Amino acid sequence: xxxxxxxxxxxxxxxxxxxxxxxxxxxxxxxxxxxxxxxxxxxxxxxxxxxxxxxxxxxxxxxxxxxxxxxxxxxxxxxxxxxxxxxxxxxxxxxxxxxxxxxxxxxxxxxxxxxxxxxxxxxxxxxxxxxxxxxxxxxxxxxxxxxxxxxxxxxxxxxxxxxxxxxxxxxxxxxxxxxxxxxxxxxxxxxxxxxxxxxxxxxxxxxxxxxxxxxxxxxxxxxxxxxxxxxxxxxxxxxxxxxxxxxxxxxxxxxxxxxxxxxxxxxxxxxxxxxxxxxxxxxxxxxxxxxxxxxxxxxxxxxxxxxxxxxxxxxxxxxxxxxxxxxxxxxxxxxxxxxxxxxxxxx
Length: 347
Description:
By secondary structure, this protein is mostly helical. The chain is built from 14 helices and four strands. Strands 1-2 form a two-stranded antiparallel ribbon.
């Protein structure tokens, strides 16, 4: 699915590039007194690349899609006389608005605010209580939003048909549901291993950590239970997996070279390869497309069966941590109930 907002409008409406240009506001440009209309050439350029944030909002409105930045800066009525200078609305957003920039391809994907919130909740539930951790091994709302969006973009890049709202285990999209569950589990393993094993002061660490989501997805695709949803683009899927394999192998080579240069021993035997290069125990190279309704428990048993020793150790630690968290919650609930049954005496 093409997520470019200009192409979306061209495909879903009867408008052409000239019609779109005519619907956009004319704006003043630096050094020009009169307002300049948007040209058809600009629309053509936007259909192939990035789109200015203020124009992305206009285009989303033209398409009738949800957009979340309601307090977006109105350059024409902005009260700060020093911004934008000389009425130039093409310069980047000020720092205080950068985190609120528009990502129109996300809106093209989810269509509505409800679908957006459902996807955030779905991915959060898949990870909970092992919540997504950023590069500092912390949970941050903004980082989680970026992570959730990246997941759907990666699915789209890999050739999957991404539904506007998340799938359920009992729906016809259950293969995608099970893939998601397996994928989030795999991301958790890779994040834990990466944060606890690799030297974080090395310059390659941020790059590798940022690639863990796509590495995990590729590993789930080429694992032993290699079913993907129907209508998946096989060529896009093949190219995605091959690209991720190159990323993994490059990361391994860089870290082993770094280890040899510094005469350190961070990685025992083939532990690096065991984690980043997923072993393929299935002799059949064909990836099957299916609408199977295999349960989550059965998929979990399949996953555990093919984990390496290093991965099993990581999962044991994660499960132990999860058990401790659950016990802590139970103790807190017990204390709260005891306090409610008391004579109003606080803790």
